[in-house]
Structures are given as C-alpha cells and as structure tokens.
Design brief:
This protein has one domain. The chain has five helices and two strands, in the order αββαααα. The protein has a two-stranded antiparallel sheet. A hairpin with a 2-residue loop joins β1 and β2. α1 packs across α4 and α1 packs across α5.
C-alpha cells in the first residue's frame, strides 16, 4: 500500500478509534486505559443492541491485539533509534528503513482493524451514526488535547 493510500486509511481509522474513545468520555484509570469501560460507555450513549455490542467488542479486540503488538515492537524500534542517536553521524538510509518498517506495521494494524470497524458501522442506524457525527464535529471544533465528555 502506498504512503498516500495508507494515510487515507490510517487517518479515518484513527478518527474512528478516537471517536470511540472520546465519544465514550474515555477515562484514564490507575495508569491504564480501560477498553471495557469505553465499550460500556459507547454502548450506553449509542443505545446499542446485543448484535451491535458484539460488533463493537470485535473492534475492541482487534484494536487491543494491534496495540499489544505495536507496544512490543516499539521497544525494539526505540532501541534502534537510540543506537542511531548515539552515533556521531546518523545513517539516513537506516532511519528511513526504520520508518518504513513502522509504517508497514501500521498498515498491518489497519488491515486487522478496519474490517471490524466497517462491520460495526454497518450495524448502526441513522440516529446512532448522527450521534457519532456530532461527536466528531465536536472534537474537530474543540481542537485536541484531553477531553472528558
């Protein structure tokens, strides 16, 4: 997948996942993010039925699996970046290789997560989609940072 196509997939994906978190009034609990809490709040706010909730759970599982893999790989990536910074002169080709490797892993994550997101979206009714749109617009207009809605 080209970088341009990746951005067209990754940006909406990130927005959708962000909406899930922010739309639920995502909280920071004892140093870790509680995905179950997010699913519960989204379920309440969108008034999901059991089928929709199962689809949302599939999104959560795909995201959590991807996050876990990315977290494990991050340590190795950081070690390689540290090694580059410690050198008297950084190797541009090596740095670009590290970036490409990371982008490839992000692409793989997107491939695993987009399907469940699409299935969840298909299950939503017009009112539920409108609630998500309203939250997205609110986030867009708010401009970023931490948001406890």
């Amino acid at each position: 997948m080209s970088k341009k196509k990746l951005l067209w997939v990754a940006i909406p994906l990130a927005v959708l996942l962000g909406v899930g978190a922010a739309g639920a009034g995502y909280k920071h609990h004892r140093g870790h993010h509680n995905a179950g809490y997010v699913v519960e709040k989204i379920s309440e706010r969108l008034e999901l039925n059991s089928e929709q909730r199962e689809k949302l759970e599939a999104v959560k599982e795909a995201v959590m699996q991807s996050r876990s893999q990315m977290r494990e790989e991050r340590k190795e990536l950081m070690n390689q970046i540290i090694a580059q910074v410690q050198e008297a002169e950084m190797d541009q080709a090596r740095v670009m290789e590290l970036i490409e490797k990371r982008m490839s892993r992000i692409d793989g994550m997107a491939q695993r997560v987009v399907g469940p997101i699409i299935e969840f979206h298909k299950s939503l009714n017009e009112v539920q989609r409108e609630k998500i749109v309203n939250r997205l617009e609110s986030l867009r207009d708010w401009g970023g940072g931490r948001w406890h809605g």
